[in-house]
Design goal:
Pathway: Carbohydrate degradation; pentose phosphate pathway; D-ribulose 5-phosphate from D-glucose 6-phosphate (oxidative stage): step 1/3
Strand content: 15-25%
Structural class: alpha/beta
Bound molecules: 6-O-phosphono-beta-D-glucopyranose
Radius of gyration: 24 Å
Catalytic activity: D-glucose 6-phosphate + NADP(+) = 6-phospho-D-glucono-1,5-lactone + NADPH + H(+)
Distance between the termini: 48 Å
Shape: globular
Number of strands: 15
Oligomer: single chain
Helix content: 25-40%
Strand order of the largest sheet: 14-13-12-11-7-10-9-8-15
EC number: 1.1.1.49
Protein name: Glucose-6-phosphate 1-dehydrogenase
Number of helices: 16
Enzyme class: oxidoreductase
Length: 514
């Protein structure tokens, strides 16, 4: 349990102690903008420079940051504030729209840098951070750990030793949260010894994607789907996250992660929970997460001999000008772990409850696939009795990327006299075409929620652990199996086994463009 006093409920609608609030800059900005110090461990790293800093700039530009809010990057880099601002100017300015140089300058002035060596002897970084934060105890204090998970516990302890954990503090944990259940529990215990669960925000950036939010609205703000959202009407569900990128420069991480830990344990299982969950009683942080946990707990375990039947793992090999996994540029030579790691996986999962018993949920993710596409495909059953030749069952496609949108494929009659000829036609909602507002990046949404103290879109401890509980037996069976992952040429849709996984029951992966 936390030794810190309980955090005030700090959601935008809370009755938390009066916090001076800056006036909103535009009609579009939310009414409440908390003054905050956002401290990012790993603040000069790849995630920070590609995602967090651009997201914060967008928030600033759109009036969602209070004027006093500061961003304090921590790294071992030995940079001054000026060095860090120069780095952001050089590396981030080109990634974002800078239409008003004064706004960009204002944003740069929010940025600070503190050098720190987590777990090291040198305490000077902590003194520097203490000086910077002194006198600002009434602000929301957000510690964002964009660093390897082994640093989470030590960093939190050092924060506490430095007296920097205030009642208004929160901590954000980036994935991966451990590499199996015991390591995840250890991290949760270590962080939980300093921060109360309500102060801990475990991020899964898929939950910040616009279509993911829309999935909940589609399901729970429309009446027509609920009666057919079950095993009576749905044949199966496919959840795909396909990427064209490989893993250049990431071997150190990826050899010990693999697709199952990197994508399935978090992103794909989160999509599965939102697809399968029961309607929550309220749109609130605990009600939604309670329902998601129940889905994870209802996942039928896959272990031992079943793993070979219900899971597939693959590794890409060189094709054309694309290197294979083992030939990707890396600072170290490939090892046995490199040869054994999966860059692709497909799994046939099942949710054992009244709504879903018997409906397969096929999960698939891979690097170096022919397209970049993340989607949830709900395949309905065929009509009970067809009076026309050539019909195909209805299908609902929720596309997360590259273009966010929703499509329902229905059968229509092709125009013309003579024989009735059927054609599947899409009823489609393209967010880009329907709404003129810019679709925010996932990290923007999530950082806004962290700053507002709203944890609904973050994973609770029991969720993360339930996900590992389901993943671990698959990992165990894979590591006991002497066979290597099935090879698939870079630029293809995965190994033959992935197609057999569905083909055995007469199904096939959805490969159509929207
Ligand atoms: C990250 C994984 O969590 O998600 C990466 O570590 C992956 O390996 C990335 O490339 C995919 O995110 P997105 O938003 O591009 O689908």
């Amino acid at each position: 349990m936390s030794t810190a006093p309980a955090a005030p409920a700090a959601s935008a609608t809370s009755t938390a102690p009066a916090e001076p609030v800056a006036p909103a800059a535009s009609a579009a900005a939310p009414a409440v903008r908390h003054r905050a110090d956002l401290v990012v461990l790993g603040g000069t790293g790849d995630l920070s420079m590609r995602k967090l800093i651009p997201a914060l700039y967008h928030s600033d530009r759109e009036g969602r940051l209070a004027p006093e809010t500061r961003v304090i990057a921590m790294s071992r880099g030995g940079l001054t504030d000026a060095d860090f601002r120069g780095k952001v100017d050089a590396e981030v300015r080109g990634q974002v729209p800078v239409d008003d140089p004064a706004v960009w300058q204002r944003f740069l002035e929010r940025l600070h840098h503190v050098s720190v060596d987590v777990g090291g002897e040198n305490r000077s970084g902590w003194s520097a951070l203490t000086r910077l934060l002194a006198g600002h105890e009434q602000r929301d204090r957000v510690f964002y750990l964009a660093s390897p998970p082994r640093t989470f516990g030590p960093f939190c302890r050092e924060l506490q030793d430095a007296g920097l954990v205030t009642p208004r503090s929160r901590v954000v944990l980036e994935k991966p949260l451990g590499h199996d259940l015991p390591s995840a529990q250890r991290i949760n215990d270590e962080v939980g010894a300093i921060f109360d669960e309500r102060q801990i925000f475990r991020i899964d950036h898929y939950l910040g994607k616009e279509t993911v939010q829309n999935l909940l609205v589609l399901r729970f703000a429309n009446a027509f789907l609920e009666p057919i959202w079950n095993s009576l009407w749905i044949d199966h569900v496919q959840i795909t996250a396909a990427e064209t990128v490989g893993t250049p420069g990431r071997r150190g991480y990826y050899d010990h992660a693999g697709a199952l830990r990197d994508m399935v344990q978090n992103h794909l299982l989160q999509l599965l929970t939102l697809t399968a969950m029961e309607p929550p009683a309220r749109n609130d942080r605990e009600a939604i997460r309670d329902e998601k946990v129940k889905v994870l707990q209802a996942l039928r375990p896959i272990s031992g001999g079943e793993v070979g039947r219900f899971t597939v793992r693959g590794q890409y090999t060189a094709a054309g000008d694309m290197p294979g996994y083992l030939d990707e540029p890396a600072s170290t030579a490939p090892t046995e772990a490199s040869r054994r790691v999966e860059t692709f996986t497909a799994i046939r999962a099942e949710v054992k409850n009244w709504r879903w018993a018997g409906v397969p949920f096929y999960l698939r993710t891979g690097k170096r696939m022919p397209y970049r596409r993340s989607e949830i495909v709900v395949q309905f059953k065929d009509v009970p009795h067809s009076i026309y030749p050539g019909g195909t069952p209805n299908r609902l496609v929720l596309r997360l990327q590259p273009e966010e949108g929703i499509e329902l494929h229905i059968m229509a009659k092709e125009p013309g006299a003579g024989e009735v000829s059927l054609k599947p036609v899409p009823l489609s909602l393209s967010f880009g075409k329907t709404f003129t507002a810019r679709v925010p990046e996932a990290y923007e949404r999530l950082l806004t929620d962290v700053l507002a103290g709203n944890p609904t879109l973050f994973m609770r401890r029991d969720e993360v652990e339930a996900a590992w509980r389901w993943i671990d037996p698959i990992l165990d069976a894979w590591s006991a199996d002497p066979a290597l992952p099935e090879p698939y040429p870079a630029g293809t849709t995965g190994p033959a086994g992935a197609h057999e996984l569905l083909g055995r029951s007469g199904r096939a992966w959805h490969e159509e463009e929207l």
